[in-house]
Amino acid sequence: MGSVTIEYDVPVRMRDGVTLRADVYRPHGDGPWPVIVARTPYNKNDVPELEFLDPVLAARRGFVAVVQDVRGRFASEGEFVPFVHEATDGADTVEWAATLPGSSGSVGMWGLSYLGNVQWQAAGQQPAALKAIAPERTFREADAGIASRSGAHELGLARSWAIMMGFDLLQRRYADDPDELKKRVASLAAEADGIPGPTYRELPTGTDPVIARYDLRSLAAPESVTAAEVPGHQENVTVPSLHLAGWYDLFLQPTIDNYSAAVQRTPAKLVVGPWNHFGQTSLQGDINFGLAGDGYAIDYETSILDLTFDWLHSWLVEGKAPQDEPPVKIYVMGANEWRSEPEWPLSRAVDTRFFLAGDSDLASEDELPASNLRFTYDPENPVPTVGGAMPHPQPGSLDQRLVEERADVLVFTTDPLTEDIEVTGRVTATLTAATDGPTTDWVVRLCDVHPDGGSFNVVDGISRVQTIPGEATTVEVDLWSTSMLFKKGHRIRVQVTSSCFPRWDRNPNTADGLVNGELRPAAQTVHVGGRASFVTLPIVFRGSHDQG
To answer: In terms of CB atoms within 10 Å, which end of the chain has fewer, N or C?
Structure first.
């Protein structure tokens, strides 16, 4: 490692004449060096952003590192429309980066979230200089985390993201009117200060009133979600890809699904740790999953950034993966250990049903007496979001006991386990349920109950349904994926309810409530016993695999 020189605000001219600007971090010496590019809407000089990217470390590791403000953000010209210009702008930037002084001509990309999506968009354009990408904790499709989840609006993400992005937009819009700018910024700051409280409670949510009031840019705008959906770009991607995901990340399943699609076409690697969207330490909420799971000390051997830079360097310099190892590396929570796997999902995982029954039972038997359980879901008093993949106020695994005391949360629990049970793979729930309104939501959450009674969320999901009032239907809820060892003496618990606010917007239980804000309580019925309602857990028999 040696000294690093930084060149600020280097102009990059796009094919339509708009100039974007980038900071270029160079190693000491003449090179040639491989180049890696990160393209961000969050300010290339922002301290938290640079902490995640660490371009200085990249340069000390032997890369020319480029960090660029995307079109219409901070130092770059043009109008910002989320995702819309990233394909061609990304391809143009890659080809420009390949011609930088000291460049070897080989270019890679790295970064998480929005910075991950722009990699797919650029790679889909097939720029000749691009040799590998490393999209981390990023999205895939509109209804799987960007704008919504199984029909429910991602209110906690979309509204807060629009507000955060709005300050630079206001700076540009009112640059010639300092007094108006000050007034507008103060007003938007008040909205930011109202998160996660009153700012989220404003209705309706179909046309977001906060976004409309300030004319902010929305993740959920049709042109934006269309541009961002990865499948439309991925079919043209020919370069290797490294996928980094977190079990408590709001883009967990999309990142895994991006890997599953990529590995069918090109070399790909998947790494999943016990992380959330912004935090990669082993402490996730109330639970410390062990130092080996820390993103800064993976398996006591490496870090997320070192792993990324090793992988990119090998592909950009040697044209191959760093070493011949299995393509999947996952962290098994509870056991608190890393494990390499030849595939995802694991073919040896056995889908096992646990049935919901009366008396709050969760059991593998399907012959328990049938009964109906009822509760009232009132959108004026929704079940609060506690932990999980919500980026704020606190993600991760949090004690759910206050949630479970509510009358509008049904709880089903196994007896204390007589042996360890590992659940690794995609978790689903099937409910036979009815509501007395034309629409409602069903939320299912899987929890690990400790011997002291603490109940800690593992994974959850939602399904927004349109229905005939009073008619029982089958509702499928996708809880996404996890890897959790439920230890001997612990219990497995399932919550069933109808809200998780403000992670997801409140279903108004009315036909036009998303448009006009009309709310009504809903009488909910869940059929249990027999095979009426169950969760499906992919169970791995730990003796069947050589761990490590």
So the answer is: C
Q: Read off the pLDDT of residues 298-319 as tens digits, 9 standing for 90 and up.
A: 999 999 999 999 999 999 999 9
> What is the arithmetic mean of pLDDT over 247-271?
97
Q: What pLDDT, on a 0 to 100 scale, did the predictor assign at position 191?
A: 96
**Do β-strands 64-69 and 19-27 pair in parallel, antiparallel, or remain unpaired?**
antiparallel
Nearest to 66 by CA among 42, 41, 34: 34
For the chain, the residue count is 548
Q: Could you tell me if 438 and 457 are in contact, meaning their C-beta atoms sit under 8 angstroms apart?
A: no
Q: Is the dihedral of CA 363, 364, 365, 371 positive or negative?
A: positive
Q: How many whole angstroms separate alpha carbon 448 and alpha carbon 344?
A: 23
CB 334 within 8 A of CB 424: no
Spatial contact of 131 and 315, defined as CB atoms under 8 Å apart: yes
pTM over 0.90: yes
The answer to whether 246 and 254 have CB atoms below 8 angstroms apart is: no
In the CATH hierarchy, which fold is given to the domain comprising 4-144+224-341? Rossmann fold (3.40.50)
Spans of all domains in the chain: 4-144+224-341, 155-218, 350-540
Determine whether 168 is exposed, middle or buried from the number of CB atoms within 10 Å of its CB (0-12, 13-18, 19+). middle
Q: Which residues are catalytic?
A: 113, 249, 277
For 333, the token pair is 């929570």
Cα–Cα distance measured from residue 115 to residue 98, given in angstroms and rounded to the nearest whole number: 19
Q: Which residue has the tokens 């659940």?
A: 423
- 4-144+224-341 and 350-540: same fold? no
Alpha helices in 5-113 (DSSP H): 47-53, 55-60, 86-98
Mean pLDDT of 451-455: 98
Measured CA to CA in angstroms, residue 138 lies from 52, 61, 78, 219, 255 at distances of 14, 25, 25, 13, 6
> What CATH number is given for 350-540 in this structure?
2.60.120.260
The whole-angstrom separation of Cα 347 and Cα 487 is 22
pLDDT mean over 80-91: 98
- Is 93:129 a contact under the CB 8 Å cutoff? no
